[in-house]
Structure formats: C-alpha cells, structure tokens
Amino acid sequence: MSETQFKPHVTLACVVQAEDKFLMVEELIKGKPTLNQPAGHLEANETLLEGAQRELWEETGIIAAPQSLLQIYQWIAPDKTPFIRFTFSIDLPEIVATQPQDDDIERCLWLTYNEIIHAQNLRSPLVRQSLLRYQQTTRYPLSLLETFEWPENLLP
C-alpha cells in the first residue's frame, strides 16, 4: 500500500480591526480585483509570528504584532492544493494609514464586516470564515505556538 505524503503550504493571515472596520488588501488575480486579509506564505528560517508580522508589513506597511491566535485551518483549495492557515487577530486603537510594500498589492481598504461578508471577490472561502471566526469571543494565546530547539542564530 502506497501512501501519498501530505505537503501543505503553510500560510499566515492577520484579521486586523480598528474602529469597527477590518483591513483588507486588494490584489489582481487573473486580472480581477480580489480581497484578502494581509496574508502569505511562511518563509524558511522564520517563526509563525515573524512571518505574520512580515506579511502584514509587506502588504500594508503597518508594523504590528499579532495579539492572539484565532484559528488554524486545514483546507484543500479547488485546484487540490493543500493549505494549513494560521489566522491571527490584531486590534488597533484607530485606523492607520497604509503603504503596501509589495507590488502585488493594488491597495489597502478598511471595510465593514458586512462589506466583507457580502463581497463577491474574496480570495478564498477562508477570508469570510476568518472574519466569522473573529466575531466569536474565543481567542487563543500566542504561547500555544512555540519554536522548539530553534537554532540560536534564528531566535528573535
């Protein structure tokens, strides 16, 4: 019996809220404007939290640290690509200006919950699901994520 090894893409996303609005990024996917939370792939030699902060900065120009873990999703995209998505929450005291550093990001938008939930141009179903999850009160401490025997030269 032959088993196929499961090699998911590890992605990180931040649900960023300020003044009852949520920060979204708009990128062109196959020529169409598409909304997503600031998100991207974990890179080699970075922790999950470092990756989330890096993606937030690259896509929005905002420097902020995740405050809690919302959820970990295991998802198979329609094209059969497997993902493990770590979704974090960040609550800012006020809406801040954005300046995308990544050329793939067309612009950043502060949108209401309803605008996002009803949007027809979300990058994946996980965008809506993460926002629904944010509305619940449960938050998980970042201490659940630990680097184990991480090389000394890579410690934050």
Automatic annotation (TrEMBL):
SUPFAM superfamilies: Nudix. Gene3D superfamilies: Nucleoside Triphosphate Pyrophosphohydrolase (3.90.79.10). InterPro entries: NUDIX_hydrolase-like_dom_sf, NUDIX_hydrolase_CS, NUDIX_hydrolase_dom, NudJ. Its EC number is 3.6.1.-. Residues 7-135 form the Nudix hydrolase domain. The keyword Hydrolase applies. Its cofactor is Mg(2+). One of its GO terms (molecular function) is ribonucleoside triphosphate phosphatase activity. It is an enzyme of class 3 (hydrolase). Keywords: Hydrolase, Magnesium. Monomer. Belongs to the Nudix hydrolase family. NudJ subfamily. PANTHER family: NUDIX HYDROLASE 23, PHOSPHATASE NUDJ. This is Phosphatase NudJ. It comes from Budvicia aquatica. The gene is nudJ.
